[in-house]
Amino acid sequence: LKLLNINTCGPMPTKTPHKQEHFFAILDDCMTYNKAEPIVKKNNCAKVFKETQALWENQTGLKVKKVRCDGALEFGKGDL
């Protein structure tokens, strides 16, 4: 969990049955951990990230050192 890369994608042309039209991806550079989570709005990223971070840190006993993103607005609002 030295470096996590995060990114969002969407809106997709077709929504899921739960009205999700974006997804949030979290990829670890050093291990095989990765996650792609469908989300309704991009501002749901912080919640998904915090839940995933807690899960991975509990599973590995390691702490996240750095997070890299593309500077998108959903990451720069102070929630992460």
Automatic annotation (TrEMBL):
GO terms for molecular function: DNA-directed DNA polymerase activity; endonuclease activity; hydrolase activity; metal ion binding; RNA-directed DNA polymerase activity. Keywords: DNA integration, DNA recombination, DNA-directed DNA polymerase, Endonuclease, Hydrolase, Magnesium, Metal-binding, Nuclease, Nucleotidyltransferase, RNA-directed DNA polymerase, Transferase. It comes from the Eukaryota. InterPro entries: Retrotran_Ty1/copia-like. One of its GO terms (biological process) is DNA integration. PANTHER family: TRANSPOSASE, PUTATIVE-RELATED (PTHR42648), TRANSPOSON TY4-P GAG-POL POLYPROTEIN (PTHR42648:SF11). This is Uncharacterized protein. It comes from Armillaria luteobubalina.
